[in-house]
């Protein structure tokens, strides 16, 4: 009879199987100072605990506190970071993608956690990523209270990694921003993006690959290399918007929209009530050169660009007409370029749609108002 019992195998360790716990410990040592720098007295337990602890005694002063939560990643922008071997900006991208969704409802972010999956833990690379996350949290006034780095040999190549994060914030129910506050006559204010942010990189990467462009290519219109432009960190709006909400100018803020996947129109439509149309004039701002380059290199139609990229506006606000000047003064005073890009109208009074216009409604499953993109950016055919 033939035996089916396996033959004795050479002894294997976890490290020989591809997981190096010592490297993980070294990564923690390299990052812990940056993480601890985001902690205020409300954070308990320090770095390395099983769970992050946050003293929320301050919520006792709220009449009806609402918790707001968000989670996200940075998509295929990581491919650019890997190609350039620059990893200390991806963390800021992650924070921006998460906390700027929380501020949209008027919530103050309290705490954030991160998750890094990789094929092989390279302590210095992991520490660079987390230092970027910690810096983003500092900019947003949010504590980084925990995280996880997971090594996945055999599932991911040694140089591969992905990052994700989640955050929680709080807002007083009576102060919550959203469609219920938006009225005809409100102005639409657009706040400049820092570039592509962290959306649409599958399209952008396909364009530059089709053109055979290297990331080290100097692009005169950009004033730097293509790689440097593509790795520009996502602007974090939370700190500036919290400052606005705490000011008298912020009393006119009715709704915010974070312009991420889907573009300006689809995201703005999510925070408008039924029966209104936000008319947005493309001629009121000029997209940064990177957007024109992507369009030209790839022959990408304008409507497709607008449904994929932020086109130079990363955050949008609906503001009462009487508070527009004060709002712009406050934002610009904090170094955030902003301008009026449109207005909210009764849908029955909205202008007709021409061939170059885009009308979006019911975006991302939300039954709300409409957004009409009209006009032309200066210099765009």
Automatic annotation (TrEMBL):
Its main location: cytoplasm. It catalyses: 2-formamido-N(1)-(5-O-phospho-beta-D-ribosyl)acetamidine + ATP = 5-amino-1-(5-phospho-beta-D-ribosyl)imidazole + ADP + phosphate + H(+). It is found in: Cytoplasm. Residues 64-171 form the PurM-like N-terminal domain. One of its GO terms (cellular component) is cytosol. One of its GO terms (biological process) is 'de novo' IMP biosynthetic process. Keywords: ATP-binding, Cytoplasm, Ligase, Nucleotide-binding, Purine biosynthesis. One of its GO terms (molecular function) is phosphoribosylamine-glycine ligase activity. It is an enzyme of class 6 (ligase). Coiled coil: none annotated. Residues 183-347 form the PurM-like C-terminal domain. Its EC number is 6.3.3.1. Pathway: Purine metabolism; IMP biosynthesis via de novo pathway; 5-amino-1-(5-phospho-D-ribosyl)imidazole from N(2)-formyl-N(1)-(5-phospho-D-ribosyl)glycinamide: step 2/2. Signal peptide: none annotated. Belongs to the AIR synthase family. NCBIfam families: purM. This is Phosphoribosylformylglycinamidine cyclo-ligase. It comes from Brachybacterium endophyticum. The gene is purM.
């Amino acid at each position: 009879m033939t035996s089916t019992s396996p033959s004795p195998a050479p002894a294997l360790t976890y490290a020989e199987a591809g997981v190096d716990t010592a490297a993980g410990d070294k990564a923690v040592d390299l990052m812990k100072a940056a993480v601890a720098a985001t902690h205020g007295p409300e954070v308990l337990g320090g770095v390395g605990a099983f769970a992050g602890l946050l003293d929320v005694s301050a919520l006792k002063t709220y009449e009806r506190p609402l918790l707001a939560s968000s989670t996200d990643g940075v998509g295929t922008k990581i491919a650019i970071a890997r190609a350039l071997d620059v990893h200390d900006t991806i963390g800021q991208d992650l924070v921006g993608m998460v906390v700027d969704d929380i501020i949209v409802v008027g919530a103050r972010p309290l705490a954030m956690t991160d998750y890094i999956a990789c094929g092989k833990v390279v302590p210095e690379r992991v520490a660079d990523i987390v230092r970027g996350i910690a810096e983003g949290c500092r900019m947003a006034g949010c504590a980084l209270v925990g995280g996880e780095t997971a090594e996945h040999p055999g599932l991911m190549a040694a140089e591969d990694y992905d990052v994700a994060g989640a955050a929680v914030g709080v807002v007083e129910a009576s102060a919550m921003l959203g469609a219920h506050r938006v009225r005809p006559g409100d102005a639409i204010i657009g706040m400049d993006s820092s570039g592509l942010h962290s959306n649409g990189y599958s399209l952008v990467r396909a364009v530059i690959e089709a053109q055979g462009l290297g990331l080290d290519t100097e692009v005169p219109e950009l004033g730097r290399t293509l790689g440097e432009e593509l790795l520009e960190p996502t602007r974090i709006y939370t700190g500036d918007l919290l400052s606005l909400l705490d000011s008298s100018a912020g009393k006119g803020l009715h709704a915010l929209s974070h312009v991420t996947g889907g573009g300006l129109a689809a995201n703005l439509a999510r925070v408008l009530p039924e029966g209104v149309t936000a008319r947005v004039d493309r001629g009121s701002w000029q997209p940064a050169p990177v957007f024109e380059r992507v369009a030209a290199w790839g022959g990408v139609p304008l409507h497709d660009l607008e449904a994929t990229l932020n086109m130079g506006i990363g955050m949008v606000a609906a503001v009462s007409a009487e508070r527009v000047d004060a709002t712009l003064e406050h934002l610009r005073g904090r170094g955030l370029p902003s301008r009026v890009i449109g207005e909210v109208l009764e849908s029955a009074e909205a202008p007709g749609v021409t061939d170059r216009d885009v009308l979006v409604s019911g975006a991302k499953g939300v039954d709300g108002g409409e957004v009409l993109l009209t006009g032309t950016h200066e210099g765009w055919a």
